[in-house]
Amino acid sequence: MGSTTDCEVLVVGAGPVGLLTMLFLAKAGINVILVESLPDVDKSPRAMAYGAPAIVELERAGVAAEARSVGMVPSDYDFRLRWITIDNKTLGEFRSEDRIPGSFDAVLCGQYELAKIMKQHVSQYQNASILFNHKLSNIKEVEGALIATVETPEGNKEISAKYLAGCDGGRSTVRKLLNLTYDGFTLPQWLVACNVRYPFRAHGFDRSQFIVHPDHFCLVGKIDPTDLWRVSYAEKPDLTREEVLANVHSKFEAIFPGPKPLPKDAYTVEIVSPYRIHQRSAPSYRKGRAFLAGDAAHACSPFGGMGLTTGICDAGGLADCLIGVLRKGCDDSLLDRYADIRRQKYQDITNNVSYSNTCLLRDTDPEKASEHEFFRMMNSSTEVRREMLKSAYILG
């Protein structure tokens, strides 16, 4: 066994949740190490827009402005989010005039780019270090600390820490090593996340829209100023992964605005990633000196815009509680409050909103959408829409 490295907090996972937790801790002067099994931050297509309570945390961390500079152009600051039919008829929308006075600007930035920004900010702190190609394989708790075993290219290493933050995604090694279940269910449909270049704006799309349709419900949203877009759509549950990949063009032809039939040279696909949609949560976000945050703690459908937004709020809450205990003399029981409150937020808000919007997109007859309570509220007045937007902040 190799040498032992000591730190106050060990973070597992170099996604935005782990990196943001680390950044807050580093700013507070806490000695923190992050381990990640990959050779660098993950490039797979994930989130690219962040809800209001997550933007508060990104502002607090000092990364929001840089994320905007990477992901946005002036027209992206026009606040608009639509629910539309497959032929681009608006069923309901949040508009620029609905924006809450004094609220922060939106943040559009691909998850990979956001993680790169956080990684660069963390590098400025001597009390913080990121270790890539370090795969967690074991956790054991000893008196007053825990010891993590990690596999590295140079052999196994032990890292001791007072606390551990598991931010290592839906397949979390931390959660498995803690023997915590991942309770809930998996939706039958595939979710296919694509990064694609296509002139959506030229064909009448805005920066973000949900398509309401029983077979082609999806999200189409702009990722960055280079005309890269995220198209996340549902696919039939009985298809194999190979069949899902073979059917991408026919799905694009159904979903994309513009001339039909859709020429294959009209767009450029950068990446396609099929996966399953989960609504799941661990029974507890704390076990001893270890904690769960982000997808390691909970998973939800991306069609509600709640996944990484909830994870970023987890990061802010966990970091604040760790800072309270390690630097401000707070009792260790404060960390129980983190675990209890964040799990309650998932159960009461994230789980309900994300699943409800998925069902709204999948199960609503577009011809009768005006009769649905959600669209009746949204289409009633600016005041009602503003109250709907204000309710998002309770996730933080």
TrEMBL record:
The keyword Acetylation does not apply. Residues 6-351 form the FAD-binding domain. Keywords: FAD, Flavoprotein, Oxidoreductase. GO terms for molecular function: 3-(3-hydroxyphenyl)propionate hydroxylase activity; FAD binding. One of its GO terms (biological process) is 3-(3-hydroxy)phenylpropionate catabolic process. Signal peptide: none annotated. PANTHER family: 3-(3-HYDROXY-PHENYL)PROPIONATE/3-HYDROXYCINNAMIC ACID HYDROXYLASE, FAD-BINDING MONOOXYGENASE. This is FAD-binding domain-containing protein. It comes from Cyphellophora europaea (strain CBS 101466).
